[in-house]
Amino acid sequence: MTIAAVRTHRLSAPLHTPFVTALRRTTTVDTLVVEVVDSDGRSGFGEAPQVWQVTGASIAGAEACVRDLLAPTLTGRDADDLQARCAEVRRTVVGNESAKAAVDVALHDLAARRLGVPLVRLLGGTSLRVPTDVTLAAGDAVDLAAAAKQRRAEGFTVLKLKVGTDARGDLDRVRAVRAAVGTDVRIRLDANQGWTPREAVRVIRGIEDAGLDVELVEQPVHRRDLDGLAWVSDRVDLPILADESVFDVRDLVEVIRRRAADMVNVKLAKCGGLHTARTLLDLAAAHGMGTIVGSMMESPVGVGAAASLVAAYGTTAVSDLDAAWWLAWSPVGGGIRYDGASVLLPDEPGLGISAMREVNVHARS
Prior knowledge:
By secondary structure, the protein is of the alpha/beta class. The protein folds into two domains: about 5-115 and about 355-365, 2-Layer Sandwich (Enolase-like, domain 1); about 130-355, TIM Barrel (Alpha-Beta Barrel). Helix content is about 40%, strand content about 25%. It is built from twelve helices and 16 strands. The chain has helices at about 60-75, 80-90, 95-115, 120, 140-155, 165-180, 195-210, 225-235, 250-260, 270, 275-285, 300-315; strands spanning about 5-20, 25-40, 45-50, 130, 135, 160, 185-190, 215-220, 240, 265, 290-295, 330-335, 335-340, 340-345, 355, 360-365. A seven-stranded parallel sheet has the order 5-6-7-8-9-10-11. A four-stranded antiparallel sheet has the order 3-2-1-16, sandwiched between helices. Helix 6 (about 165-180) packs parallel to helix 7 (about 195-210) and helix 9 packs parallel to helix 11 (about 275-285). It is globular and about 60 Å long.
């Protein structure tokens, strides 16, 4: 059975609450969904989120990559030869990880649909329920404490607090959130590259000295400052989680070589898809590193793929899969849903996506 067409769908949907980090503020999810269609008319879906400040990926760039390079490579090829098709995606273009991830996931989704099994089954797992944290957007101590109380009331037990916008006030923010939720909720921090190495050590040591029981600190310094990341890791007791510093396998090898971090956050849109993501998880495990799987601000398409990966492969800490929870309404039909602090995978073929509210669509047949 051959690949008959590769289509792209531009989607945009509002968030119910602004999402604020040390890098950006957004009120919408703007993304490109790729649809790979076989000659029987079955479709598989994948997602390339627009995240200028993290991956540099844009909808226009991802769409051009898919339309001009990846679609011609795949059209007319055997849809059942999954590994060969994914290898062609990786070889066809340098960089463009977000676009490649979308096509890689769409090929996996199509393969699962053709077999009549959920994507998690194709990946080797069986669980349809995956725990997730929830993010507290950057803000002042009062707003963060109020948001933390609300998230706890909604059933979340792992809170990811966005810091890094103001190093002098971050200790007070953590203190306020801990006071608001008590001791039975895990708190983790994400500075999104917002601190200098000295600021990071000062804030983290302050947290440790105050006994605020923080689980981990994610990407405290600039993604390219691996010396600074290692310097921080050597001077604090809390685990340091590398996120923006690790896109691909070579990045993780260098972090391991320098012992720059204790954990890694694997994201499909950073690394180029499920194949590379599995390699990163295996490599981290082989070197005794902790792992989580995360997502950008994405729709149920991308989050569903990430959650399926976690359900099949597992991670050492609760993963960061709340992106689609932030949507005021879903731009796609079907797919994952949330039940308190869990992502529920559909017991349907592939990702279970049935429809989408598109801005526009392009196809190559």
